[in-house]
Amino acid sequence: MGHGQGLQGDAIPFLSRILTVADAFDAMTTNRIYKPRKQIAEALTELASLSGSQFHPQVVSAAIKALVGVTSPDVTQAPDTEIEKKRFSYFFNDRLTGLFNEDYLKIFLQNNLKLHDYTCLHILHLTNVVGYNKREGWEQGNTLFQKFSAELQIRFPDALIFRAYGNDFAIFTRTHFDLAIDAFTAFTSIAGSDITVEPQHIDLLKNQAYSFDKFDKMAISCSL
């Protein structure tokens, strides 16, 4: 157990020991932009496992007694305003398309970050992409994805749109709408190619516990 000034053992002020445990607990139970939060019980278990190594046993014991049964507020570092979204774009934007990336989708779903604000999820899988890239080249394939993403943003201006696994897109909307299987035939980005869009719909009002693992499995099944 150390300290910023090189102090060790009993030389570390007791208040510093308390603040160290408090800071660790706060970090564990807060949604970070790079890591989902732990449940209270999980955080306390981790504190207990580090008692005597990273944290003072007496402080850990007191913290566990005080925090057992408490409810953690829904604190998050996830972006909310447009300014925050731009500030986090380095972490969360897909570099090719400018849409939100797989990392943010994972955090969004695992923590249900404002998921209750959305009622509808459409998952789009682009088919025959590998064959297209072999014929036309990767640069042309990248251009197609950029144009397709731009058309998605125009078509769904109020939606939250993610790109994941390269060929998959997730569209979250606040109001429900039906999406026909031929809804993308008018997209100029894929016109004249053999790339097609396979849409799947998730009703978030019925699947409020929808998780990234479910999206993961669905995306993999679409790719097979």
CATH A-level architecture of the largest domain: 2-Layer Sandwich
In total, how many domains does the architecture comprise? 2
- The chain-level structural class is alpha+beta
Number of helices: 9
CATH class of the largest domain: Alpha Beta
Instruction: Sum up the overall morphology in one term.
Output: elongated
Biggest sheet, open or closed, and with what strands and sense? 4 strands, antiparallel
Instruction: Note the run of SSEs as H and E.
Output: HHHHHHEHHEEEH
* CATH fold category name of the largest domain: Alpha-Beta Plaits
Mean of all residue-level pLDDT scores: 80
State the low-pLDDT regions, or none: none
Radius of gyration: 23 Å
> Order of strands in the sheet with the most strands?
2-3-1-4
**Hey, roughly how much beta strand do the residues contain?**
5-15%
Quaternary structure type: single chain
Describe the fold and architecture.
The chain is α+β, with helices and mostly antiparallel strands. It has 2 domains: 9-67, no CATH class; 82-223, Alpha-Beta Plaits (2-Layer Sandwich). It is built from 9 helices and 4 strands. It has helices at residues 14-28, 40-49, 57-67, 82-87, 89-92, 102-110, 129-136, 138-155, 212-223; strands at 120-126, 160-164, 168-173, 197-203. The chain has a 4-stranded antiparallel beta sheet with strand order 2-3-1-4, covered by helices on one side. A hairpin with a 3-residue loop joins strand 2 (160-164) and strand 3. The N and C termini lie far apart (50 Å).
